[in-house]
């Protein structure tokens, strides 16, 4: 719990006077704020925390000290009521009456991106960078303030995105990133929550319609039977897709980061990058064959798949490599779909979606599907399975006219 104390500084000035300070302590850290008074040791009442009568204008000065103490306690109380885990800098800004929202959106955005890169979250930084570029292509002025991001601003930005051929998913993605930035700004006390535009402009309205993404088991077989000897340039895409499908929908980033040390006997053990959940997967025969095809290949890294070319890449280098290779992977999957006759928009995500749906189709309970995929709650899994459940309902409904 935060606390404050008014006292004299230990060290005197060149005049032999001791500054009166306010010390704020929060989360075991302290900060000293000067209150603008200086006095002799003999003029300070340490017990009652005020000036003695010997101090010039002691009555008025003590009233000011009392008001400062009251102001400090109110600021702490306000933070606690709003359940804000405030920083000492945030307290000082409030106490001194510094206008925190003088920082521009661009300045704050760049600061957040820099912090994310420094903390190794290059993927998050890249997503924010892409949205930042889009917003300022729309707004054109670098001095944009958070107060200017109003519901009207967001509506116009949405129109701009759609005019520039952004899909529903693309619009929703950018709006979520912008909302995330605004939430960070509120938490950092850059902008007051009363200006929050997303109370009126609802990102939830941009929810993308449910598009059938899952492959049937027969369509997965078509990819398994794809003759990679005729198309060696597409062999890697086929293997990675099937590896994902038979490894509980393992996502592309985790496949890229998978090391041989995670493969032991008939099990694969790894930590999912997105949720930090631990997975221990049995190696099915198709997975074994894929692993065997890479096991004895010459390699300069510890990674199973030849996607990353060095063990010592930075987080930014890894994200850049992922972006490049994932783009090629998705392009190659579309070529495979065209060759084998799968009339669905094939991508890395489809393997995960297909795994969930096909498990459900063979009678596995949603709870088990959810656990196998590492979902935190069944509602997430249900979203994956909605297409399948709608189909079942449709077929059952048709029985009414039989």
TrEMBL record:
It comes from the Bacteria. Belongs to the 'phage' integrase family. This is Integrase. Keywords: DNA recombination, DNA-binding. The keyword DNA-binding applies. GO terms for molecular function: DNA binding. Gene3D superfamilies: 1.10.150.130, Intergrase catalytic core.
